[in-house]
Amino acid sequence: MSDFVQAFLNAEIALASSHLLWIGLVQTMLLALMTVPLGLVMGLLLAVLATRKSRWVRWPLMAFTDFFRAIPPLVLLIFLYAALPFGGIDLGAWGSVALAFLLNTGAYYAEILRAGIESVPRGQPEAARALGLKRWQVWIFVVLPQAVRNVLPDLISNTLEVVKLTSIASVVAVPELLYQARQAQSITYNATPILVAAVIYFLLLWPCVRLLSRLENRQLAGRR
Amino acid sequence: MTGWEAFAFNFLNPEVAAQYAPMVLAGLGVTILLAMLVIASGLVLGLALAVLRAFGVRPLNWAIIFVVDVFRALPPLVIIVLIYFGLPAAGLAMSGFWATWLSLTLVLMAFSEEIFWAGISAVPKGQWEAGRAMGLHFLPTLRLIVLPQAIRIAVPPLVNRTIAITKGTALGSVVAVSEILGAAQSGMAFSGNPTPLTLGALAYLVLFVPVVIAGRWIETKFAWRR
Q1: For testing the chain A interface, which of B9, B53, B78 should be mutated: the one with the most A CBs within 10 Å?
Q2: Where are the transmembrane segments (chain A) (predicted)?
Q3: In sequence order, what E strands does B63-136 have?
Q4: CA dist list (Å): B39 to A73, B28, B47, B99, B166
Q5: Fold for domain A2-222?
Q6: Model confidence, pTM
């Protein structure tokens, strides 16, 4: 038992690695704060475009979102980071992470928002047009508020997934929380920093998980 | 070399592709095996926890909710790293394959418990009462009346979540599992050419594009009429 405490719950090592972990936490937050808004904007653009009737617009969009939903984000990241430089395009670690996360997250947000937009009854935009609203006004004041409300749990859930996704940036040596924890572990030969990092992730995301659980239960119960 | 020739030489090199295709194919086999094991164990455990939760024992339910919350909140890669690099310190060494399997199983267990439970609570109270009134005990009511309806409600979100978690098998490459990505990265290192990685990406697309399309179809097929 004392071996276990020594290896996992070592207060001295937790304290010694706290500075490294703090730097990692800040980087994790930065990654999330960069990816979520960009992904939302891209997803929104794709979802609005997907309502066009022309199949020359819809099919390539569907292929695009399905492509990036089918490929694991880590594969995309390794491809951008390790393979693209052979073709003369070197994005660096941060650039590769940013692009990989944007493409993956944008595709997921697009799919969610598309479902939300489709869930708004046809009569709503028609009525708004008949009342004399301009096209952009119909989107902003009538369609999107209802669309977002209908898929809010999915949007929050995907945002949670984005924060969790940032941990794979550690694979290309971006010094976010997991990477810093592994650094601290290899310096100290002790697993405590990784456990501390896990606890930080949990405390950071637990409120979000609780909220989501409530929203999802309410949504399912409300469908009957 | 023209631009296209250089591109083809680097990313679609037929010689390199021929040499490393068997390696990537072996990786595809490992990915499929790992995915199957994760899906089987994760869904069974998730359903088991949801059924346990239906008994309504307070302290037990709090424990289940806490465990589920933990594995919904933690990034899968953090769990894999913790199990693979951390557990040996506690005298429990595990190969990369089994560490990845255990981590993804726990994650799928947590997410599927939540979905199964939402399905169970969405079945109207009257169904339970009717079952009991017919003389069925708690478990037969659950098994014959409630679960069939609950699972039907759970299918669309469950399919999408299972696909997303199964894609996490690629994380195994971080702990030296020779699944598609791991094999492709080794191939790239041996050949000094990224063609094996192109092959790996293609292997993932072959595996997951049909699944993603099927998932979209199931979602509309099982959708609730509004």
Answers
A1: B78
A2: 20-49, 61-85, 187-206
A3: none
A4: 20, 16, 12, 15, 7
A5: MetI-like fold (1.10.3720)
A6: 0.91
